[in-house]
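Hi R.,

Here's the input for the adenosine-5-diphosphoribose complex you asked about:
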Amino acid sequence: MSDIEKLQELIDGSNNIVFFGGAGVSTESGIPDFRSVDGLYHQKFKYPPETMLSHSFYVTHKEEFYEFYRDKLLLKVVGTPEVPKAEPNAAHKFLAELEEAGKLKAVVTQNIDGLHQSAGSKVVYELHGSVLRNFCLSCHKQHSAEEIFNSQGVPKCACGGDIKPDVVLYEEGLDMDVMQGAIRAISNADMLIIGGTSLVVYPAAGLVDYYRGKKLVLINRDPTDRDSVADYVFHGKIGEIFSQLHV
Ligand code: APR
Ligand code: ZN
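And here is the predicted structure with adenosine-5-diphosphoribose in place:
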């Protein structure tokens, strides 16, 4: 039985699937991941990217933070005439179809690009928030990603307050309601598919330990340190793999 046939058989036999994903789910949409050789963390900047994406850097270097944030995290999500907006790929679309068919109960993602929802997924636990949500720190008014992208320097609300993206920066805590929802979904799943993530960032990566079933499937281009505990491991491009499956 080929890998694809095996994966199809596992999916056919499950009606409570949960997907746990990371940046590797969006690379086939043109959004680089972080730790691959062509990822964001291997590009050269004045400061290390992990530093620039930290709460303390946001507080002490707001101008530089927004320069990096617009160019590296927002550009591909908002799009410009020169840089096309990232669209959901076969991986996002297949997961939305599985949910529509009542087979998948939730997507748990570390991504902040909103592509699962654009593909039609309804239950999406965004562990690290979303660039599509931005709030004024003074009056809590919501602001769009386009507004942030098209503003200069530190984006300001009409009330004079700073606008901050609803993105979990390093040193910041995750939203407890989102964590609880993700843990509940993973704990109840009969099949957990982990895809496109290096599983090195906590507490997000630790959530997969709440899975109690025997159908832990890992689909990742590179090996991860969880390969040994997965029931099935597929190394390859997740969009390509999912495009060969049917609901
Ligand atoms: N198909 C399958 N796997 C892929 C693909 C693809 N098309 N493209 C990349 N990958 C794999 C890479 O092999 C890598 O192991 O996806 C993984 C991406 O790992 P990271 O770049 O570390 O991204 P992620 O795991 O999401 O990082 C977690 O780190 O910087 C923080 O907050 C950020 O949410 C992010 C967190
Ligand atoms: Zn305001």
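One thing worth noting: Residues 22-24, 27-28, 33-36, 39, 110, 128, 196-198, 200-201, 220-222, 237-239 surround adenosine-5-diphosphoribose (ligand 1) (CB under 6 Å).

Cheers,
M.
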